[in-house]
User: Fold this.
Amino acid sequence: MFSSIHTGRLVYVLHWIFTEQLGLTCRITADEEEWRQWQGPKLVYDKQVKPEGSICLHPSGLLEEEDIRSRSLSVQRWKKTTVLFYNQPGALIPFDLFSAVFYLLSRYEEYLPFTPDRHGRFPASASAAGQYAFLQQPVVDEWIGQLKRILEHQFALTLKRPPCSYQVSFDVDIAWHYLYKGWRRQWGGRLKDILSGNVAGLRQRRAVLAGEATDPFDCFDELLRLPMPEKPLFFFLLGRGSKYDRNIDPSHPAMKQLIEKLSDQYPTGIHPSYAAHGDPAMRSQEITLLEHLSGQPVTNSRQHYVKFTLPDTYRQLIRAGIRNEYSMGYPEQNGFRAGTSRPFLWYDLKREALSDLRVHPFVYMDATSWYYQQHSVAEAFSEWERLYLKVKETEGCFVSIWHNHLLGYDQAGEERRTFFKQTLQYAQA
Assistant:
């Protein structure tokens, strides 16, 4: 590719697009003669040089810079998708594809000033995807699909993208509803049921504690008997009690046994507690504890409440030994926070440096449907299906998040479990 630009930003995005997604090697040269003599596929990424017979993209300036500032995104429609940095009307590729991909993958907009939600998170409404209504479109994957078709047509190539996948993951926020909580929490729960007139809850609690009924959140065995495309991934919350961290004490023998049992059979990761956000020492303690309980190194992570801040959270995770991060999505809306369903290495925008932390975006979370969107089961399935088909069309990776306490043995849980089974059957069919 001919370009007078040769920055870390451009090298990063070219490697992800051409090498990781299309299986090609892309080399940058500023020597016009060398570029003209090259016999293989040729592209131009330059404002001045536009030779005939080549694919020319016009730089918008984003990849030449080393600062972070608010920019005009020049949003337009092209090939039934939304594009950013539209700058060449009528061209084969009429927008700065490389800058657009970099803007979304690097999460450039999350480094700009924004009003956080009540948990201190970057909200979907502040994003370009939220404001221009393309959050539920994997626009980056659609752009690369169009680039693939153009390259194949222009240069008689046959390109193959990496195989798509369907990854089910579980966040174990509350392993048991009634069991193993200690007398303080038991009496507190009883008092809450009494004051609210929850007679059914009192009866269920009594039956579970007497060994006459299964704890409603203990549905692990049933879930794991279901056929899944790949081994599910489990994330354990090990925070020791706070308003938002309400799992069983990790020192309890039952919790230890559950972690050991699941870790022996399935890939696992840490679910850093809400209290650990902004406290690297606490997060490291939780990771060390999970390594001790599972007997395995911990390299996977998903933040509790999807609460993270760039670049600080990712830097802290890297220092703690995390290599795969699964928090890239919005808690309040399902879709494509980074514009793609495919994993990518995180680019530290403030340091202008590529890291070895691989980000795995999630597309769908059950808690989003039930808590934020207030969906019925039918509405939840409709959204899940729409997102799944988008990922399938773009040959992507569908990562979904589920919670055992939302799939438990109560009326709502029964309906949600049926929905969960339906999604598995649909994906496998």
About this structure: The first strand starts at residue 43 and ends at 45. The mean pLDDT is 94.
